[in-house]
Amino acid sequence: MRRTFSTVVEEANVASEVISPPHKHSANEKRLYRRLSELGATGGTVAHTLNQYIREGNFVKKIELERCIRELRRYGKYQHALEVMEWMDKRDINFSNTDFAVRLDLISKVHGVSEAEGFFNNLSPQLLNRNTYGALLNTYCKLKIADKALALFKEIESKNFTTSLAFNNIMTLYIGLDQPEKVPPLIEEMKKRKIHLSTFTYNIWMQSFSLLGDIEGVERVFEEITQDGKETCNWTTYSNIAGAYIKAGLAEKAESALKMLENEIKQQHPSREPYHFLITFYSALGNQEQVHRACSLLKSSFETTSNMSYRIILQALSKVNDLEGMKKWFEEWESNFTYYDTRVANVVISCYLRHNMIEEAELVFHESVKRSSGPFVQTLVLFMKHYLMNQQIDLAMKCLETAAARAESCNWYPHSDNIDVFLEHFEKEKDVEGAEKLFKILQKLNCVDDKVYSHLLQTYITAGKTKPDMGQRIERDGILVTPELENMLKKKKTEKKIAPVTSPIRKEAEAVLGTDMTSSPVPAPFSGLNRHADLPPSSSPGSAPSPFLGPNLPSSLGLGPTPSPLLGPVPYPSQPPSPGSGMGLPPSPFSETAPFPDPPSSAPGQGPGSGPSPSGFFDHDVALAIESRIKQSQSDAQLAMDEAKKLLDDPTIATSETGVCLSKCIDKYGTSLNELNRAITDLGVREVTLLADDFGAVETDISTCQSCFTENIGEDSPLKALEEATTKAARECLTVMDYAA
Fold this sequence. Notes:
Layout: H1 8-19, H2 27-37, H3 39-42, H4 46-55, H5 62-74, H6 78-90, H7 97-111, H8 113-121, H9 130-142, H10 146-158, H11 164-176, H12 183-192, H13 199-211, H14 215-226, H15 235-248, H16 251-268, H17 273-284, H18 288-301, H19 307-319, H20 323-336, H21 342-354, H22 358-371, H23 377-389, H24 393-406, H25 416-428, H26 432-444, H27 450-463, H28 470-476, H29 483-496, H30 504-513, H31 620-648, H32 651-654, H33 657-684, H34 688-712, H35 720-740
């Protein structure tokens, strides 16, 4: 999982783990959890799995189900965790106060804040305690619904339910709102009221100083934690101080903190998570030797190495540009995996493409096709971006076409920056047929907007061709006619009356310009940007077509002469899996149990411009550019949420279908804000793949909101402009990432 701070209940669970010895799972419990964790791959249901398990003669204890729920939550399988609780409820298994808090938290994650509020309001008075209040407060803080969070915090204080957990949530809110200066005063208030400072409290406190650029403040907090052997000091403490030092560019101090982290790991024998931190941090420091040592330490500490761990290892080796080491570990994974996770393969493919090793990337892709049913949408996107950067538009179009055919069940659609490259190419080349072909693909993916139509119209105008029904098409697709689009339509109508060569107006223009307006050369995409100066001749634009799309490509991909049999609805896994399933999306080391700041913008001793940085590791200026766009997107999403709430204040709107959609949109805005907050975290360790996931999730959330209006009411969202501004800023982040890669 990639969030910076844990939920209320997760924090309590982890705190208890620190004090008590680690639980040894029974054989039955392991078998049950493995079945539940594999549901994302097998497509079964929780109820059927549990019932079948009991029919086989197994007895399930409540404590075993609770541990399965905790593991499922830990790896982001919220839907399945909630279904376990619903199954327990139907069997009249008694819930504790903590169980109700866990269920509220899961409802908020799966169904949104409105459903969580409904669940909370329907609880009996005796269940409205500090646990359930804390879970709802955590939901508000996580989604950065500041007004409701602060109001609920006051209510919690009035009921004398205040604990360190409540303060932690409010401090997390301030961190998310980019107001770290408000954290230290809350710490002082806690000390004044003799409220216990937990490990999480100290971690948030350290992070606030780090965000304020006060490394001495970070060190003061660290000294306070470690003095007198406080039990609040655990491996997350050392990971936080290491992260702060990396952010400040203090490599020696960071490595010293990582040694303390390693010693703590050896003493506590915890989960794989701290090893993931260790590996990622050493890669952020550019220390290839320590990355290898930490990877070996992880492997030797557990009976098996999970898909999640392999992905962390491969990402780290990719960052330090150790392609041979990456290849070795990938081959080991290929010979040992329990489930073929295409995301692991994508890490290697992405690295090879970044180094222009197209044949190696294609070989990995071929093996993926043999071993997995796909749908390979994200893999195809990696190749598409590579071909776009190399101006191989035909190959990029084939990748897009195939990805679109498989994307129906994945809720995927291409980012606008990639669409723009296609559209600008067709416009400059006066390629009306290519533009129309792209238009049809985008139409199937519901990606057509006024910008796409503007490019399409401009392509017709540039090519001197007409399309009389363009206005009708725009109206039929429900596209808002902007002033720019209206002017282009008028211009197109005017040009229909002008013969291209014989018109006196055109001849006069050609005489003044001294050029033939119908045949003047057009600059190629990315003109003026020397993107291929370092590429070998075989990889440069204009080289022979890649065998990736040649006759030797497996026909099942749908890219060769044989139609693909896999173009149907094959779901692409979207939840971070568990170690048991092997479907792992590795958590960013900025996880729930260890909040800490981002690493520096460049490896120690290597400032921007001093040499090639580790793959996926942006320099300071690029990181700042991405961060500014993330914050712009956050601002637009927050403004959209505020405006939606104002509209709902009108009773006539609140009770209408528009009100239903607005309520749904508020949930989606909140989810988008959460994803953007995660993006800030992932930017800290320069996780390019995870950043792309974050921005893609934002677009999906906003699209879901807009679909509610268009499909149920037949009109655009009243907040369409703000929604598009939110996604535009997120897409611009991807543009910056692509050009910086």
